[in-house]
Amino acid sequence: MLRHALYLMLAMAPAALPVASQAGDTKPKPPETAFTAKQRPDILGVSTDATADSTRTIFEARLKGHADVQSDIQQQKVGDAGTSFVAALNFNLPNGPRQTGELLAGSFSAPASGNRAYFIARNLTFAPDQQPAKADLIKEIIGKYGVPTIVGDQHLYYIYRSGSIISAGTKYKEATALEAIDKPLDPRAAVKLNGETVRGSCVAVIKRAQTKAKTLSAMLDEAKGANCDGVLSVQLVPGTPPDRVGIAQFTLLDVKLVISASAIDNDAIAADQNERKAMPKGSAPKL
């Protein structure tokens, strides 16, 4: 009799266990991106194919040895009851009279879309005796990223469509970029960039992205309305004297990835919620 009861308990045990949700275990779906393998801009080696883990490794290595670095690693849950993931990284090395300050930041999609970087920023506030020549820095920027789309208002803008940097008509060289950078943006070039569409200016989109919340949901509407797939912005604030650079701000935004990752992540959350609703809700029988 005891043997028969034990057999019944073992046979019933698997059915009595709760079924684990499989939505978080599915293979990540790669989101669409503004960039190609041949034209994939990066900031300190971090591009929009980077994950939160790989980005954190690079950021920590960059600021290694500085005891005064402040870090902020922000986590977010998938849906209301899902697993946590790293949604944002912020590392800050304060500037001082003899120390150049550096701020490194990244924002990342959920695991369903690969936890991919869609916003990357690096801000350098140079110590007074470490300010680089503006001409030298522009040479380095063009050497790394290529010919910018438009220059002015202290910025070099690289605007991407269909995997390539688009042109507004001016083929900037180092000398012409240096001459234009502190002048207002050419309004004729801005009109040419927007063409016949009524979609939003990518210059305005990345400027607003620098100041607003960096979540996918906060960026989605503007991303859908932007007249580009991605933007790289480099701002050079004059130092003392003005032919030197006091602050250099690098910002990379993958507009296409924001839209694609949002759709993938939202579909995964919906699937997880539906799976949870479908799970058995029976109560234990009276014994």
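Above is the first protein from milestone M3; the second protein from the same milestone is given next.
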Amino acid sequence: MRLSAKRRACGHWADQLDLSDHLQAVFRWGVTEVIRLGRGEPIVLVPGLAGGWKLLAPLARILARHHEVILYNHRGDHAPLGVCQASQIGGYAEDLADLLDHLRLERPAIFGVSFGGAVVLELAVEQPQRIGAMILHGVEARFQVGLGATIARRVLERFPLPADNQFVNQFFNLLHAGKPGPGPLADFVVERCWETEQGVMAHRLRVLEGFDVVERLWRVEAPTLVLAGTQDAIVPVARQRALAEAIVGARFAPLEGAGHIGFLTHRAEVARHVARLMGHRRRTMC
């Protein structure tokens, strides 16, 4: 199977991706896509609020040079809106635990971005023995409801919108470090995000409003890396730094000039930080 962009304008952001293994995993609520590529120590990539595993594909290509990379979709990604939704972050964390069981992965490294970072954190505090190393990007210990997120959720909930809606696209633009100019990256982000149903996006924003692991962070056992874009307009860098400081032994790495999607715009730098964490993990295990 190969991944390709809907528009040729997306260029290298959606180059064809050779997938060594494309399968389906059965969860309690239904079936989802699982992608495996590369060889080596496994890293599970947990997608954000919208865009599914495809938004992480450019980063996966780089990580797969030295690792087996596993990508999957949350319930509701690229699926009918009627698919059973989890009412709390814990439900998505249980899905992730089910995936680890399905693939027989014992304490892999897990990398969560944004909403996916909240999912990984929830698993890390409730089932710390499941995670061998944790990488987080664009997440904080307690979701702070901002005006922009509130407006976006209410619009998504109440008004059926056409694809490429300009209002929601402005919300997507907040993912960048400043308003992006026209080009393949901006097109790629918008197109991937719109592949997630707007009702699903609204539901996940609502679920995030109840996310809070502040009083449970002491339970984290895995070596942890917190990556933060210094220009992140969704989760400011100071709040991500505070998350790293609250986790014993965690390392904080700022991505200079990056926004909320530093895993795309600064993916080579992200991969270097991940390699450093994985090397440290191997040395401590010897």
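Note on the second protein: Residues 12-285 form a domain with the Rossmann fold fold (CATH 3.40.50.1820).
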